[in-house]
Specification:
four-stranded antiparallel sheet; single chain; alpha+beta
């Protein structure tokens, strides 16, 4: 009975580790996120967040709808599920409104 319990526990731990590593390391598809906002400071903070977490991104100059203010549009390339989750969490927890378009590459 002890042997069955040990084998079951080891199998559960091994499966949990494999799933965790798969989420962190899997690069089966790249998700291209184009993120826009009228708030320049918020976009600069978001770009710093992406750089800190080593998520590939490109920031380009853009303007608000009324052509009155300059802002930044960020294209972020999430290569793993973990990177996608980080981007999702940042946007969900932000008090500001972001416009986001996602494409699978």
């Amino acid at each position: 009975m002890t042997a069955i319990l040990v084998v079951s526990l080891a199998g559960g731990v091994g499966c949990a580790l494999a799933c965790l590593l798969s989420d962190k390391m899997s690069k089966d598809r790249t998700y291209v996120n184009v993120i826009m906002s009228d708030d320049l400071e918020a976009m600069m903070d978001f770009r710093d967040f992406l750089a800190k977490n080593h998520i590939t991104n490109v920031a380009s100059d853009s303007y608000t709808l009324d052509w009155d203010q300059k802002t930044i549009t960020i294209t972020a390339y999430a290569e793993t599920k973990a990177e996608s989750r980080l981007i999702n969490k940042y946007i969900e927890e932000s008090p500001l409104k972001f416009k986001r378009v996602i494409q699978k590459a």
